[in-house]
Amino acid sequence: MRNDTKKLTLTSIFIAMNVVLSQMIYIPVGPIKAFPMQHFINVLCAVFVGPWYGLAQAFISSALRNFFGTGSLFAFPGSMIGVLLASLLYRKFKRIEVASIGEWIGTGLIGSVCTIPLMWMMQIDMKGFMPIFYAFLLSSLIGSIIAYILLVLLNKRNLLTKRNG
């Protein structure tokens, strides 16, 4: 199977997993819903499909969750920045822990700050930013740790012999 076909197939599977798992596991905080499984999937995308397919996964997953009424607009900046940073760092260093940390920094720190313009446009009181900030940090930390553990286990069993990025 061609590499692009493989990446497209994996991306589709990650989107489906993300949408289904996000129905089951989320943390409601004010106007947002934090989805640890988004961050789990983002780290997997960083390792298996790279930044551009990862960005597509984050965008489509966020759009589908919004369409189904299970997500919020806050999903876009967090998930897309997180997967992009995780993927670019993984591509450069080829280390699982760097991808996990990239997801946490990209979503938890940078992505949460990028929600400020959304809060302003949605006329949400800025006092609500700190709970959103902490929710992004916690959610991305949980998802990144779960992905890290899974990827380390797969790597120990030599199931990550060919990593794309």
Which descriptors apply to this entry?
7 helices, Arp2/3 complex 21 kDa subunit ARPC3, single chain, mainly alpha, 4% strand
Detail the topology: elements first, then pairings.
Elements: H1 3-24, E1 27-29, E2 32-34, H2 36-48, H3 50-67, H4 75-93, H5 96-113, H6 116-121, H7 129-156
Antiparallel strand pairs: 1-2
Notes on the protein architecture:
This protein is 75% helix and 4% strand. The chain is mainly alpha-helical and 165 residues long. The chain has a single domain (33-157), classed as Arp2/3 complex 21 kDa subunit ARPC3, CATH 1.10.1760.20. It starts with a helix and ends in a 9-residue tail after the last helix.
Summarize the structure.
Pfam families: ThiW (PF09512). A two-stranded antiparallel sheet has the order 1-2.
Give the topology string: H per helix, E per strand: HEEHHHHHH
- CATH topology name, in short, is Arp2/3 complex 21 kDa subunit ARPC3
Report how far the terminal alpha carbons are from each other: 17 Å
CATH class identity: Mainly Alpha
Structural class: mainly alpha
Individual helix count: 7
Helix content: over 70%
What is the rounded Rg?
15 Å
Side-by-side strand order of the widest sheet: 1-2
Give the overall form: globular
Report the biggest beta sheet as strand number plus sense, adding barrel if it closes. Answer: 2 strands, antiparallel
What is the residue-mean pLDDT, rounded to a whole number? 90
Q: How much of the residues is beta strand, in percent? A: under 5%
Q: What is the annotated CATH architecture?
A: Orthogonal Bundle
The strand count comes to 2
Low-confidence stretches: none
Oligomer: single chain
Number of domains: 1
InterPro entries: ThiW
Protein name: Energy coupling factor transporter S component ThiW
Transmembrane segments: 12-29, 41-60, 66-89, 101-120, 132-154
Keywords: Membrane, Transmembrane, Transmembrane helix
